[in-house]
Amino acid sequence: MDIANFLIQLLNSVQYGLLLFMLAAGLTLIFGIMGVVNLAHGSFYMLGAYLAWWLSARVGSLPLAIVLGALLSVGLGLALEALLFRHFYRRDHLDQVLLTFGLIYVFEELRSLLWGDDVHGVDIPQGLDWSLPLTDTLSYPAYRLFMSGLCLLLALGLYLLISRTRLGMKIRAGAFNREMAQSLGINIRRIHAVVFALGVGLAAVAGMIAAPVASVYPNMGSQVLIMCFVVVVIGGIGSVRGALVAALLVGLVDTFGKVLLPQVSGMLVYMLMAAVLLWKPEGLFKQ
Amino acid sequence: MSAPRAHLETLPRGLQVALALGLLALLGFPLAGSDFYVQMVARMMILAIFAMSLDLLQGVTGLVSLGHAAYFGLAGYALAFVTPGGEPVSLWWTLPAAVGASALAALVIGFLVVRTHGIYFIMVTMAFAQMLFYLFFDNKVLGGSDGLYINFRPDAAVAGWLPFDLENKLVFYYFTLFFLVAVYTFLRRLLWSPFGRALVGIRINEHRMRAMGFGTFGYKLGAFTLAGALAGLAGYLWGVQSGYVNPELMGFHMSAHALMMVIPGGMGNFAGAIVGAFTFELLLDLFKDLPAVGGFDLGKHWQLSMGLFIVAVIVFAPRGLLGLAQRSAPASAETPPGEPP
Amino acid sequence: MTMSLSSDASDILLSARGLTRHFGGLAAVQQIDLDLSRDRIHAVIGPNGAGKSTLTHLLSGDLPPSGGRIILGGQDVTGWPAERISRQGLGRSYQKTNIFAPLSVWDNVRLAAQSRSPQAWRWLSRADGCTAVNERAERALELAGLQSRRRTMAGAASHGEQRQLEIAMTLATEPQVLLLDEPLAGMGVAEAERIVELLLRLKPGRAMMLVEHDMDAVFALADQLTVMVNGQRIASGSPAVVRTDPLVQAAYLGADE
């Protein structure tokens, strides 16, 4: 593999990894802070993708669609949390698994009713529709660089939010000890609502950003959900830092695996997970 | 995690009678039903065995697995691999071999997975099952996304004599019923055995079990492997009946399918798993056959009905249908008076 | 210096030397030496946060030590997991009631007794048909005084009965060394007296460690006393001597509990 090819695969790994991180960060926060396992997390990714397609057709611009879509998703997240998820924080994981699996079905059907079952494409915004030349024959799509850049920005924002703001401090306090945080006057219910909405928003935005590259199709949520779970397991529940490291690891293993060992590429990531579990059963960065 | 669930273990008199009547109904059914329905009920019995295997893992031991279908599908594939294209293969060695393959897979994966707890366990069981799914899906050698066919049902011949012919739908029905009863009986006895009591203890309070000297890892691995083996038995029967296996049988949706059979029925007593399996399959057929209402094809969008039904059950009847029945049964030392505070 | 009341070393059933446990930068337990002798109750007292519970966790194997050694019945068990230490002959009861709430009192104790004859490979015979296990459980139930409550669901039993059950379950594993973590927690006067009587009944043949805040019970029960403050042992010896130790009075007994 020559330098240019290696660079391309490396950039692809990072891009895929960062996208996974957007999803995994929300999932790990929701797990770590509220103790809720949400199988429908992939559905929010799908929602984002469909919103990107549907809104960009209506408002004529993908960036605007992403902003609108993000707002809508956050709103949906708040509503879902208040109406349904809030009542399940204390329930058995089993109940949560079943509930959210039922939700997957419901979301798939709602999507089918609202937007049909066809596969759709989303156009890359005009300003980003070019390629960065690497050699005289190879180039790298600017949009993918933009994706990585945006995910990195959001990751940085998340880090700053959690470690540098008061809201972040309250979130961390609530994760550490719910009762104590409450007795200190921190409104735990609001924190939970914010975290949940944040998770939904991140997943949806990931879907929106990825739409021009990954296209928009039914069941896209389930595929990404598994990878997301693997990332969270490897990184350690509740650890956003772990999710980032794990997501990049998974991105690397998966991307290079497909190129170097195509027959077993599908299994490589799981073997990575198995290896991590043998060494650290609670993930690399378990809180 | 929430407070440990109390499960109904000693079946109330009414339920025992109902089960006995159910067995009689199953015994007599082929005399009244058409071929189509005989096959349908046989399929439900196979799924009931699958559900009971999950109940052992989940209801009894408390290990919530989202990847149990891996062992179900694997056995079907094992049968497909050993059945040549032009003739049947012997039942007598393929059945143990397929079950053994599932058990071995469960042992290996279990060894890796049982060391994790709570949410991790749920996620890694799902991940490993998906790994197997992709292994079969991506490789043409293993059948790929199209799956494999089993052109002839296994042959029960012993030294030239054929005691029964599985190609006969009636024979296959009773063959499956035999296993349903055998597995149920075995599991009920297991529940009250020292091994079973230890598994229940692990579900309720694993920490205390360890503090008392029980090597809980071994017990959990044992339960995981046994559950995998029994799922394999169901998968073998499924392969025999349908003559076709594909990766979906091992996938996430099939595993969730199993969960949805076990939970609404009520966990930890195996009767609930049987009731749940039959109920779920009947509901599925019902939802799929719904007519179009006001231009909206309910049948085509059965997932919506099923999804809403599941959500409703979880919200309103968390202990399942048998749990509802339990509330009207007289309280005894084994049956707790209600939800723990 | 620990003064054991018997100079015969074979009477010391559990011995800890230099036991230490760190949590990040915090030393919860520092260089603790402790001996538990047969037929004696060794009480460990100290203010909240002194490290008493951590010490108990270290001795029972619930937590691995950062340093030091533990010898149980002549065997070095340092770093062993809880299930191995339990099988080696140590039992502990928990401060926060740690029972099987949905099972009956009898089933709780029977399960504890089963740990000594697990018969894990018996899949087809009934667990409650095993005489050895039943007898062991019956003895533990009797010692703890819970025979009349055997059919009560453990979660529905009174707080005092649950504390008795804690002890019964520990006894059913037939330990030579017994660690009791605040057995009197949350009890009324009458119930506490019953437990004190129970603990005295348990002394013969066993080495017991008692972590307690109830000073009346401590002085009624303790043959030896160790005082911990901030993870360290500040005094150890017979109760009469320790209670007059000025260090102890300043740190603990002086402030009314």
Structure description:
The complex is a heterotrimer of chains A (287), B (341) and C (257). Chain A has 287 residues and is mostly helical. Chain A has a domain at 22-218. Helix content of chain A is 75%, strand content 2%. Chain A contains 11 helices and 2 strands; from the N terminus they run ααααββααααααα. Chain A has helices at residues 3-34, 41-59, 62-83, 93-115, 142-164, 166-176, 178-183, 188-214, 220-235, 240-260, 265-279; strands at 131-133, 139-141. Chain A has a two-stranded antiparallel ribbon. In chain A, a hairpin with a 5-residue loop joins strand 1 (131-133) and strand 2. In chain A, helix 2 crosses helix 8 and helix 9 (220-235) crosses helix 10 (240-260). The longest helix of chain A is centred in the N-terminal third of the chain and has 32 residues, at 3-34. Chain A starts with a helix and ends in an 8-residue tail after the last helix. Chain B is mainly alpha-helical. Chain B has one domain (13-327): Orthogonal Bundle (ABC transporter involved in vitamin B12 uptake, BtuC), CATH 1.10.3470. Helices cover 67% and strands 2% of the residues of chain B. Chain B has helices at residues 13-32, 35-60, 69-82, 91-113, 118-138, 169-191, 194-211, 216-242, 252-265, 271-288, 302-316, 320-327, and strands at 148-149, 244-245, 292-293, 296-297. In chain B, strands 1-2 form a two-stranded antiparallel sheet. In chain B, helix 2 (35-60) packs across helix 9 (252-265) and helix 7 runs antiparallel to helix 8 (216-242). Chain B is globular, with a radius of gyration of 20 Å. Chain B starts with 12 loop residues before the first helix and ends in a 14-residue tail after the last helix. Residues 328-341 of chain B have low confidence and may be disordered. By secondary structure, chain C is of the alpha/beta class. Chain C has helices at 52-60, 82-87, 105-114, 131-144, 159-171, 189-202, 215-221, 239-244, 246-253; strands spanning 12-23, 26-37, 40-45, 67-72, 75-76, 90-93, 177-181, 207-211, 224-229, 232-237. Chain C folds into 2 domains: 1-89 and 178-257, 3-Layer(aba) Sandwich (Rossmann fold), CATH 3.40.50; 98-174, no CATH class. Chain C is built from 9 helices and 10 strands. The two termini of chain C are 26 Å apart. Classes of the chains: A mainly alpha (287), B mainly alpha (341), C alpha/beta (257). Chains in contact: A-B, B-C. At the A-B interface, helix 4, helix 9 and helix 11 of A face helix 5, helix 9 and helix 11 of B.
